Amino acid sequence: MPPLPPNVSKAGLLRSISGWNNSSLSRRSGTTVGLLSTRTPHSSGNSGGGIPNPSLGIGVTRLAMPRNAAGTWAPVSLSGTPDPLWIMGGFSSAAAARSTRTPGGSWNQITALPTPAGSFTVAVDRSRGYWVVVLGSATPSDSYASADGVSWTPIDIQEPGSPLMYDIAVDTRTGRWVVVGISGQATTTTDPFGTWASISTSVGSNTLYGVAVHESTGRWVTVGDSTDARTTTNPTGGTWATVSLFASDTGLSVAVDQQTGLWVATGTNGSIATTTNPAISWTERTALGPEHVNGVAVDSGTGRWVVVQDNGEVRTTLDPTGTWTNMSSQFGSADLNAVSVSSNGEWVIVGDNVLYSSPDGLVWTLNSGSFGLLEDVAAL
User: Fold this and answer.
1) Nearest to 28 by CA among 331, 240, 308, 292
2) For 2-41, how does the pLDDT look when each residue is reduced to its tens digit (9 = 90+)?
């Protein structure tokens, strides 16, 4: 695929090339576990499953319950804990950034953020409560950080030529952020309000559409305008190794289960691949139909995976190496661009003027609002 022209969203590009429809990235985020769950907190796509800061109003993801006088576990009340904050946005004024704590209800425009200028990507550090949004090109006028999702500060993520950026991931253990985009450009920081540094991903002119990190190993993976994935444990200066991903398709999205270390990458023409060692090899699985797989997310608390595709295709599984269940009867025909899961296990899917929410990733409800072309969504 050639580099994107200026001010062209990923969704718009894929709609116009070779009959492709709208495509966008998984964004990742979130989760909570049952009080006696043996799995780690929920995580989705790129955001991981960090431990939140209660002072920030973030729902609890890991909970140590006190013992009672008999030495057994005692239940803990979670009453009063706010629902996690969600933020979404897209391409054009109709899809201006919005936030809510009730994704099945009303979403309020974030007036502190300008209209997206060609693309939209968002991620949140659940350990610290920091948000980063890039609304198009990597310039101070289009890049913002927030400590609460309410007040926003323009930031300079230091990418020459103001390229469009398509995905963000954050390691909530170390606070390391990585943003990727057009022509293989990427930038990183451990202080989203401070200095960002441009980094080399060794992909030449290929555009990067997805990035994720496995926090316990510090392993980063990018996918994009190539049949290969790139991976490193040192995004600030190490070499990004090239590993074969697909036989002939372009990578669009990538996510990792923080509990099991299982990775899933998705791409054009229904392509999907899995691995537990992304630095060595990937196994390409049976294609999920002909539609591009634009986004993938995992709830590491329950082990549930969800992928979203063009033409209203949605699939789920507890084992990405095996069979995926088609849930498309609950959806219309709009292209779906991103999926995310919050710290309380609630899911959201966004697409072309549609938004769906679910309490469990299985039963979905269409939000009646009008949202424009939505490209990304994330939650605490």
Assistant:
1) 308
2) 344 444 455 544 433 333 333 333 333 333 222 222 333 4
- Containing 16, the helix (H) or strand (E) segment is helix 10-16
The Cα–Cα gap between 18 and 36 comes to: 50
Model pTM above 0.85: no
Encode pLDDT of 295-354 as tens digits: 999 999 999 999 999 999 999 999 999 999 999 999 999 999 999 999 999 999 999 999
Given CATH 3.40.50.300, say whether it is the number of domain 10-57+81-379: no
What are the residues facing 170 on neighbouring strands? Answer: 177
Domain range summary for the chain, segments of one domain joined by +: 10-57+81-379
Q: Report long-range pairs for 64-68 (Cβ below 8 Å, ≥24 apart).
A: 65/35
Q: How many angstroms separate the CA atoms of 1 and 312, rounded? A: 24
The owner of tokens 């909530």 is 172
* Sheet with strand 219-224: strands edge to edge: 208-214, 219-224, 228-232, 241-244
Assign 268 to helix, strand or coil: helix
> Lowest-pLDDT range, 54-63, 114-123, 138-147?
54-63
Amino acid at 368: S
